[in-house]
Amino acid sequence: VGPSKNPSYFLGFDVGGSFTKAVLIHVSGRPLQKETLSSTGFERKSYFAKSLKEVAGNLLLKEGVSASRLKGVGLGLPGPVDFDRGLVLSLTNIKGWKNFHIVSFLKSVFKVPVVVDNDANCMALAESRFGAAAGSKFALCVTLGTGVGGGLILNGSIHRGPFFLGGEIGHIPADVSGSACACGGKGCLELYVGNRAIAERVRRVFRRDISLEQASRLAAAGDPRARKIWRQTGWTIGCALAGIANVFGPQVIVVGGGVAQAGPVLLGSIRASLNCFLMRPLKNRILVKPARLGQEAGMLGAAILAKEFCVSRGK
Ligand SMILES: [Zn+2]
């Protein structure tokens, strides 16, 4: 990928339901320029293409890089994607994108290789290359929020599996007699540790609506009721993580997403629970670390994905 005098550049887009984040990276992986744009109107594909192209132009211009040095574009989407065919399998946030051949569409726009993956895989890739899991070939990244998602790094690569559903940590069964989940399963982890479930627990305990941010602050300040909520949440998460860790023995588990902001009480509880449920040879050997790249992990991962795709093909 180009001699150092003429380095290559890559673009990453983290396409969300409301906003899309874009980053231009150097071939070394260094992020250079960033921009956030609204995703409103993206259901119109021509407008979506025009918006991305415009942002790409802005970022290259700001960095003073000629368009010919752009060698690849990566996208992260909030839903399952057929990575090999570059196809959106389903997406609830943007209407009309189901079965959208997004890669071939964007290739004709950008005239460079384009790759697409789901956003949790992009986050996992970024954390594994430049974040909390850097240097570990086997890692599990989990994002806690309204949804509970994740990505598996196996021997340094994202594990996608033949159905492109690898890493759906939120849908690990956490209760044999649990109720039905929207995914088609039952008693899924997300039903117990997703934002909605935690908010419901907070409401029951405090008998009023307080935000999860407030509940985190209360816990940090030592409120025993708030601490108990986060401890229980962490215990459930740690148990599920131990289930996966016992199967593939990762070196590190990275915990990110909004709920992870609850801080030491949650992380401490996840660690205690994990080590309680792990098999003896794994106990106290798997690091549990907070995510390091925060909100930028998705776009960075998308750009890194494009870079690695191009490098592996010698383009
Ligand atoms: Zn489910």
Polypeptide structure, described:
There is one protein chain. α6 crosses α7 and α7 packs across α8. The radius of gyration is 20 Å and the shape is globular. By secondary structure, the protein is an alpha/beta fold. A five-stranded mixed sheet has the order 3-2-1-4-7, sandwiched between helices. It has a five-stranded mixed sheet with strand order 10-9-8-11-12, sandwiched between helices. Strands 5-6 form a two-stranded antiparallel sheet. The chain has nine helices and twelve strands. The site of zinc ion has 6 residues, from loops.
* Order of the strands making up the biggest sheet: 3-2-1-4-7
Bound molecules: zinc ion
Count of helices?
9
Radius of gyration: 20 Å
Reconstruct the topology from this structure:
Elements: E1 9-15, E2 19-26, E3 31-38, H1 45-63, E4 70-77, E5 81-82, E6 87-88, H2 102-110, E7 114-118, H3 119-130, E8 139-144, E9 148-154, E10 157-158, H4 190-193, H5 195-206, H6 212-220, H7 224-248, E11 252-256, H8 264-277, E12 287-290, H9 297-312
Parallel strand pairs: 1-4, 4-7, 8-11, 11-12
Antiparallel strand pairs: 1-2, 2-3, 5-6, 8-9, 9-10
Bound molecules: zinc ion (ZN).
Task: Give a brief outline of the structure.
The chain is an alpha/beta fold and 315 residues long.
Features:
about 325 residues, five-stranded mixed beta sheet, binds zinc ion, alpha/beta, globular, single chain, 12 strands, 9 helices
